[in-house]
Design a protein that fits this description.
single chain; 352 residues; alpha/beta; 2 domains; globular
Length: 352
């Protein structure tokens, strides 16, 4: 394939990925309509090749000096276990509190809003957490709709049987009213001065096609590559003003050798992570995460990342799973899939 043909193909993938993300209407293959309910959240599946090319083309990469602990899987037991919640644990939630007449007060996680942009006052039982001890007069931005009162708060208390006995209530930060920030875990320690941002800000970041090509030419050494936003994706201007990190999963060889091979190819922020995140494992994980999502009892409202397609010509990173809580049962299911293949975003956060 010529360079021109390759660029044309990349352009097609970029447009396809952008259209899919804007539409946010892609559904899992052959779902069972009988299992859907009126408040059913949606899953966002992004074709594996398109997602990878789109993400990598938007990154600036630079090699950071190695620091102790810089290698390791992206989300192994020691990382994702921090989200595990057991009965009796102290937990925290931030977001919407709903009080309907004749029903328990509940916390409602940041589910997708209806297409008209309105804020629904309630949600199905699978996505609600019962609360006791909440002072409804202290909620931020209080409002009511159809007899249902609701507002926002940061709550702490004891978790038991999908309930929180609240013993601490405060006003939530303005930027946390609708759930935790959309940040990505990076399997490398943060530099002492923080993750760098493009300086000066740039509207168009350089392509990393050379990096991707090198990785694909050495499948025995490198696994998946993906873009991570350690401080979140929101940016106040059109230019890139937030850190963007390219993660390269290293299957074999050492980090220093990988640095010597990759450094001449680009300029930006790079994390080289030793692990076993491969294309085949990601595809298997995508199917498994889909199965979990279809069971409403799991409280998962979004599973986004790679899609189980045949056109898997590139790699993508861990699958993003947004859910109510990581309890012991779900944690066991995630372990079967492979915790290094998942990025978990639970609404209920344990306080360690």
């Amino acid at each position: 394939m010529s360079t021109s043909d390759h660029r044309d193909e990349v352009d097609k993938l970029l447009h396809a990925a952008g259209a899919a993300r804007r539409a946010k209407q892609a559904a899992p293959p052959q779902p069972d309509p009988a299992r859907f309910r009126s408040n059913r959240p949606r899953v966002l599946w992004v074709p594996l090749a398109a997602a990878s090319v789109a993400a990598i083309a938007a990154a600036t990469i630079v090699l950071l000096p190695d620091r102790p602990g810089s290698s390791g899987s992206v989300a192994g037991d020691s990382v994702e276990a921090k989200y595990l919640v057991r009965d009796g644990d102290r937990v925290e939630v931030t977001g919407l509190v709903v009080a309907a007449p004749g029903r328990p007060v509940v916390y409602r996680p940041p589910l997708p809003k209806p297409s008209d942009g309105s804020e629904p006052p309630g949600c199905t039982d699978n996505f609600a957490v019962t609360l006791t001890g909440v002072d409804l007069d202290r909620l931020a931005e209080p409002a009511s709709k159809d007899g249902v009162s609701f507002g926002y708060a940061r709550l702490r208390g004891i978790w038991h049987d999908r309930r929180i006995a609240v013993d601490e209530q405060s006003m939530p930060p303005a930027d946390a009213l609708y759930g935790p920030p959309d940040i990505d875990p990076v399997p490398c320690p943060e530099p002492s001065g923080g993750w760098p941002v493009p300086d000066p800000p740039r509207h168009d970041l350089p392509s990393t096609v050379a990096v991707q090509r090198y990785v694909e030419q050495h499948p025995e050494r490198f696994g998946a590559t993906w873009i991570a936003f350690p401080n979140g994706r929101a940016r106040p201007a059109r230019a890139w003003t937030v850190p963007v990190v390219l993660v390269v999963n290293l299957l074999d060889s050492d980090v220093d050798q990988a640095r010597r091979d990759l450094q001449p190819l680009y300029d930006g922020t790079l994390c080289i992570s030793q692990g076993a995140v491969t294309r085949s494992r990601l595809i298997q994980a995508a199917h498994a995460a889909q199965s979990l999502w279809l069971d409403l009892r799991n409280g998962i409202w979004e599973s986004s990342g790679v899609g189980p397609t045949e056109a898997t010509t590139a790699t993508e990173g861990p699958i993003r799973v947004r859910l109510v809580v990581v309890d012991e049962r779900l944690y066991g299911e995630f372990q079967k899939i492979g915790l290094d293949l998942l990025s978990l975003y639970p609404a209920v956060q344990p306080i360690r």
